Amino acid sequence: MIRGALDNEDPDRLYTVTGGRSRADESVFDMVTLIVSECEPVPGMQSEHARILRMCRGPLSVVEISSYLDLPVSVVKILLCDLLDTGRITARHPHAARTGGRLPEPETLKKVLVALQNL
Amino acid sequence: MSAHISSHPYKGPSLTRQALAVPLLAVVVAGGAGLWVTAEVPAADRTAVAVFCGVAAVLLAVALAVAAFRSRSISRLQERVTTLEREAAAKELEAARLADETIPAAVRRLRDGGSADTVLTQVTRPVSAAHQRLLRVLVQEIGTGERMRASAMAACANAAGRVQALATTMLADLREMENRHDENVLGDLLKLDHTTAQAGRIADSIAVLTGARSGRRWTKPIVMESVLRGAVGRISAFQRVRVHAASNAAVAGYAAEGVMHALAELMDNAASFSPPTEEVHVYVEETHTGVVVTVEDGGLVMGPAALARAQKAVSSETLDLTTLSGTRLGLAVVGCLARKHDLTVSFRPSARGGTGVVVLIPQQLITHVNQDAVLEPPARARAVEASRQTAATASAPVAERGGSAPAEAPAPEAAPAPETSSPAPAPGAPSAAQPPRPVNGLPKRRRGETLAAATRSAPAPAPDSGKAKTSRPCPEEAGARFGAFRQATRKGSAAGAARNAESPASAEDTEPAESAEPAENDQP
Prior knowledge:
The complex is a heterodimer. By secondary structure, chain A is mainly alpha-helical.
């Protein structure tokens, strides 16, 4: 178990990725905030920033980015904060998109649950 | 000496005889002369002259006897002096041989690990007993010293290896915890992570100085950015280090740890010998001889003597433990690592006002990783993206998608997903860069991994290619799958007993691979 983890590990520690920070300055991001890159990566950029910019050509949620980068969500938030501050990405909250949308009726949800259990 | 003293009494009688012969002769001659003179002089004076002559003859005889005896003893003493001188010269020669040949040879044999008794039988024994005793005492003392040194080194190496193993495990655990916990705990975990990394570096330093192997081995080439981060992460003042690197060079896995450690020591030196307000700048530059990493600080200027001393510490042929001071191990460690990996380290005054250290990582340790391929999002991301794209193009409104969308659209069809998911190294890069890829369509098992894990981790081409997006699987495929499933269950039930008997063996087979890491670390 440990061995597999050691084999796949990278030598860079998380505090070097974040430059010693452990907390994002702003709380504009949550798990499902959608990120879209606004520019192409430039050479000399931190590799994580470049990868975020590449993978966010289409909207991608914070938690997905975290999974693809194999970094904790809080670290990804710090990285995204850097990019947002320099205007390289834009962030959108998904609930802003479905304004006025209501949650399904509890009855419907219950039916779905029963049907799922019957499977 | 004793032989001489004992030989003296033998010579005594003959010498006395010879010494007596001369005065007897003198007395006879003087007596004759006296008689003649007495006979010549007038009778009145004859008595006085006879008495005078007799006295003179006796005195002469005594004087001659004394002179003869003295001369004999002088010549005898001269003989003794020459023999003694000859012997002293021989002893000198023997002592010189003892000092120049025998003792160095004995010490060399002791250093090579021979025991004191073995060495005493092997070297040429000196003739004199005192020298033999001297040699024996010397060899025994040096042998004890060597044994103590060797066991102290082994104990240090062993302890360092254990601390290294603990630090490595702890870093992996911390990383896993960092993934699990949110940002309230993350700060504390990062602090622990940093401290553990520094402790690991100290253990690595001791391991390097005691000649043990370095902390861990990477199984893939490590890109320069990660090498520098790995180095920066091991020093206390890592926030003062500014890295300027746009290189896509990667250091071969077996040397990456050593390079990281050497750079960490140099950065730590730079950070601790410059004021806390100054930054340490690290530049990476690729040349035809390799990759040059420059660590520059704005701290104290090292004088020519200090520069020469530092240069000597990192470039000397062998590690001299006597030059180690208790507190500054860094440069000695860098020297060891430089010798091991053929790094060239040179010091020079920096244009920033402090000291600059230039490290040349030779070309044979460098591979090039195609950064673009590494930076591509994983295959799943592309698949998701592609499906999103088709959805988006189907439902007309493409608001946020700019000019990149048309160029992106044909990509998943043109290049199969498994190809892009693995980093495509430059030609000539070692195959360690690649994740296990099916050879001739067969999954490749890595050491210590079960076959099931290998087949699971190997990219399955069928679901990722365009066919996967058709919602309905073709019937032949489904039939084949059922066939395989049926075959597997039948085989499984038939070989159930056999597998039960086999499973302990296979468990034993995988166990050594897992426990290999600590066991290796135990060895000096």
